[in-house]
Amino acid sequence: MHHLSQDSRHSRSELLQRAVVAGGALTAGAVVVAGLPKLASSAPSPAQDVRVLNLALLLEYVEAAFYAEARAKGNLRGELRTFAEVVGGHEQQHLAFLKKTLGGKARAKPKMEFGKATTDPDAFVAGALALEDTGVAAYNGQATNLTAGALAAAARIVSVEARHAAWIRSIVGKTPAANATDSSLTEAQVLAALRKTGFLRSQRGLDDDNAARRDDRRGDCGARPHARGARSCRSDMRSARDR
């Protein structure tokens, strides 16, 4: 379906590659988050930074492994192969950056299985579109939940993820930027989107995030027992366990 001519698309490929590579050098200040919709969130805190950056790390684990396997399988040709090579390299750098930022609090790598998404070009495109769109929306959705330092770290990545999403759209003839603003996803929506891909072999990655949310709620009750009332805290803890 997506039969690409390397010669006819050579100039555009080079232009897009330069744009993506240049994006890696953007500073955190280049990302504008003021226009994002106000989302339900908790006050930024170091503990929440860890949770949010670990959510980003889960995404990067999946993306990096997805592109690495697609390159190794060797079934991609032309600009799709170039995309997998360039973007895969970026995701490996993002992965290393987040792991270094989180240090000993970085989550473990989940088990993944990509099936034909890394061998069939059409399935690869569908997988890449889903992952890149989810990545951009995830970073956008969590921006207001981060402290200034963690936001600066995330901002170094999100602009490049947006270029990835535009590039894969361009390759298959879609409008690179169909909307004036990007969408945002809550943490729960990000996890649901990952679950929908079927790329996580087990629920381990998702379970880790559910456990983190339960821990955060217990911590809030312990730290602020009178601010919300003991009854409210007990109710929150029961709701967290039910999830």
Please outline what is shown here.
The protein is mainly α and 243 residues long. It has helices at 10-23, 46-73, 78-102, 121-142, 148-171, 187-197, 204-223, 230-242.
Helix content: 55-70%
- Element-level helix/strand string: HHHHHHHH
What's the oligomerization state? single chain
Pick out the low-confidence regions.
1-40, 216-243
Alpha carbon gap, first and last residue: 41 Å
CATH class of the largest domain: Mainly Alpha
How many strand units? 0
User: Beta-strand level of the residues, as a percent range?
Assistant: under 5%
Q: Can you count the helices?
A: 8
Q: What would you say this structure looks like, in words?
A:
By secondary structure, this protein is mainly α. It has two domains: 44-201, Ferritin (Up-down Bundle), CATH 1.20.1260; 203-243. The protein is 65% helix and 0% strand. The chain contains eight helices and no strands. The protein has helices spanning 10-23, 46-73, 78-102, 121-142, 148-171, 187-197, 204-223, 230-242. α2 (46-73) packs antiparallel against α7 (204-223). The radius of gyration is 19 Å and the shape is globular. Residues 1-40 and 216-243 have low confidence and may be disordered.
Layout of secondary structure:
Blueprint: H1 10-23, H2 46-73, H3 78-102, H4 121-142, H5 148-171, H6 187-197, H7 204-223, H8 230-242
